[in-house]
C-alpha cells in the first residue's frame, strides 16, 4: 500500500492536508506585512506533523491531542537516549516524553474502539475519518491477527509508525527549504521548476502534478543531495551463513549482529564527484547539481569515475541538446539513505513525495527571508537514527505570497 495506486492516493491526501494546514496558519496573518518567526524549523515541523498525522491517521489523533506536534518533536529529540540501555530513573525526561506520546495514541485507540467497528469498514475504502488511510487501518487489523492486543503494545507499534513517517522526511524537507532559500540563484530555478509542476485547471487553491514534481531534474538532484549529505543511519544485519567475509580479512559468524553506518558510503571520497580545482564541490558541502549529468560534460554527474555517459537527447527539431538529466546510475551501493537489499525502506517512495511536496507547498505559499548569514550544521546528536536535523534555531521573516 506504499506503492502504486495506494501510494498516489496517500500522497494526494497528504498534499491536501499540508496545503490546508499552511493556508490556515495563524502564525502568518493575511496582508502584505512581514512576520518574524524565531525559528523556521519549528514552524515547518509542527505544521507538517499535524498534516501528515491527519493524512495517515485521520483527524481524531490530532483533534483529541492538541499538543501532539510539540509532544512528538520533544520525544524525537530524546529518542537516542532510549536506545542506550539507561535505567528509567536515570533517563526521566526521555521516558516522560515517550509516555506522553503513547498516552496520546492510547486516547485515539480508545476513541476509535468506542465509535467505530474496524471490521465494518469496506475493504475498498481508501480513507475514512477514524483510522485515516487504508494502510493504517489494515495495519491495525494485522496487529490483532498477530496477537498484539495489549493497549500499550499497540500504542508502541503505532508510535513507531508515526516516528518513521516524520522523523526523517520532515528534517529533510527543512534542509531542502534552507538550502534553497539561502541561495538566490537556486531559489529562482526551484521556483521555475515548481511553477512547471503546478496544476492550474483545478478548483484547489494549490496543487502539484505528482509526476512532474517527482521527475523534475533539479528537484530530484536537490532531494538526492540532501539525503546524501544529511542522513546518518545505522543499518543492522545478521549473516545467514557462517564465516561471512568482508573486505580487509574480516569474518563474521552466523547470526552475529553487524551494524553499519550509511554515512561511510554517503561521504566516500573515492566514490562521489567533488568537482575539480577550478570548480570544487567538497562532499561536506551542499551542491544542488551533484546528481545532474550533462551529456557533453564528462565532469558532471554524481560519481567520481562515471560508469557511462548519457547521449544528448534530441530536441524537437532533431538536433541534439545538452539538457541535463537526474541520474543515480552506478550509485546503488553508495547512495543508501534508505538502506539496501531486501530490507530497503518500504516507505521511500512516500518519503520522496513528502519531502518534495512539503518544500513545494511552503515555497509556493510563503515568501521567506532567512535572518542568518550562515546555515546551521546538522545535529549530530541524532547520528545513527536517519536524517540529522539542523542544529539550533533559524529565525526568518515570512509573509503570504500573492498570486
TrEMBL record:
The record's listing under InterPro entries reads: CYP450_sterol_14alpha_dmase, Cyt_P450, Cyt_P450_E_grp-IV, Cyt_P450_sf
Residues recorded as binding heme, renumbered to this chain, are: 345
Q: Which domain of life is it from?
A: Eukaryota
Q: Which parts of this chain are annotated as the region Disordered?
A: 298-323
Question: Is Transport included in the keywords of this UniProt record?
Answer: no
The UniProt GO MF terms for this protein read: heme binding; iron ion binding; oxidoreductase activity, acting on paired donors, with incorporation or reduction of molecular oxygen; steroid hydroxylase activity
Signal peptide residue numbers:
none
UniProt keywords (A-Z) are:
Heme, Iron, Metal-binding
The record's SUPFAM superfamilies line, in alphabetical order, gives: Cytochrome P450
Q: Which family does it belong to?
A: Belongs to the cytochrome P450 family.
PANTHER family cross-referenced by the UniProt entry: 24-HYDROXYCHOLESTEROL 7-ALPHA-HYDROXYLASE (PTHR24304:SF2), CYTOCHROME P450 FAMILY 7 (PTHR24304)
Name the UniProt record assigns to this protein = Cytochrome P450
Q: Which organism is it from?
A: Mollisia scopiformis
Amino acid at each position: 500500500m506504499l506503492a502504486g495506486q495506494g501510494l498516489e492516493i496517500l500522497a494526494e491526501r497528504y498534499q491536501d492536508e499540508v496545503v490546508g494546514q499552511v493556508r490556515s496558519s495563524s502564525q502568518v496573518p493575511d496582508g502584505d506585512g512581514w512576520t518574524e518567526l524565531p525559528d523556521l524549523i519549528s514552524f515547518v515541523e509542527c505544521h507538517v506533523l499535524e498534516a501528515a498525522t491527519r493524512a495517515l491517521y485521520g483527524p481524531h489523533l490530532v483533534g483529541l491531542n492538541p499538543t501532539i506536534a510539540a509532544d512528538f518533536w520533544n520525544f524525537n529529540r530524546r529518542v537516542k537516549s532510549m536506545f542506550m540501555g539507561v535505567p528509567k530513573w536515570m533517563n526521566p525526561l526521555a521516558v516522560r516524553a515517550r509516555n506522553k506520546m503513547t498516552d496520546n495514541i492510547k486516547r485515539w485507540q480508545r476513541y476509535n474502539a468506542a465509535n467505530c467497528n474496524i471490521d465494518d469498514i469496506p475493504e475498498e475504502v481508501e480513507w475514512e475519518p477514524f483510522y485515516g488511510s487504508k494502510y493504517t487501518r489494515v495495519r491495525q487489523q494485522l496487529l490483532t491477527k498477530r496477537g498484539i492486543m495489549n493497549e500499550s503494545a499497540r500504542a508502541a507499534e503505532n508510535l513507531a509508525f508515526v516516528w518513521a513517517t516524520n522523523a526523517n522526511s520532515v528534517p529533510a524537507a527543512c534542509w531542502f527549504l534552507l538550502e534553497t532559500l539561502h541561495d538566490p540563484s537556486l531559489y529562482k530555478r526551484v521556483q521555475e521548476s515548481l511553477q512547471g509542476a503546478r496544476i492550474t485547471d483545478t478548483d484547489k487553491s494549490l496543487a502539484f502534478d505528482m509526476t512532474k514534481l517527482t521527475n523534475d531534474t533539479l528537484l530530484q538532484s536537490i532531494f538526492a543531495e540532501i539525503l546524501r549529505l544529511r542522513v546518518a543511519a545505522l543499518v543492522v544485519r545478521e549473516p545467514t551463513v557462517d564465516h561471512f567475509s568482508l573486505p580487509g580479512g574480516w569474518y563474521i559468524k552466523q547470526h552475529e549482529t553487524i551494524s553499519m553506518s550509511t554515512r561511510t558510503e554517503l561521504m566516500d571520497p573515492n566514490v562521489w564527484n567533488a568537482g575539480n580545482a577550478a570548480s570544487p564541490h567538497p562532499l561536506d558541502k551542499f551542491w544542488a547539481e551533484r546528481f545532474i549529468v550533462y551529456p557533453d560534460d564528462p565532469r558532471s554527474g554524481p560519481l567520481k569515475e562515471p560508469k557511462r555517459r548519457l547521449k544528448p537527447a534530441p530536441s524537437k527539431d532533431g538536433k541534439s541538446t545538452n539538457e541535463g538529466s537526474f541520474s543515480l546510475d552506478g550509485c546503488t551501493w553508495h547512495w543508501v539513505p534508505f538502506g539496501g537489499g531486501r530490507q530497503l525502506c518500504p516507505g521511500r517512495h512516500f518519503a520522496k513525495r513528502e519531502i518534495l511536496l512539503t518544500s513545494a507547498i511552503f515555497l509556493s505559499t510563503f515568501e521567506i527571508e532567512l535572518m542568518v548569514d550562515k546555515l546551521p550544521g546538522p545535529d549530530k546528536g541524532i547520528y545513527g537514527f536517519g536524517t540529522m536535523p539542523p542544529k539550533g534555531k533559524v529565525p526568518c521573516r515570512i509573509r503570504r505570497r500573492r498570486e
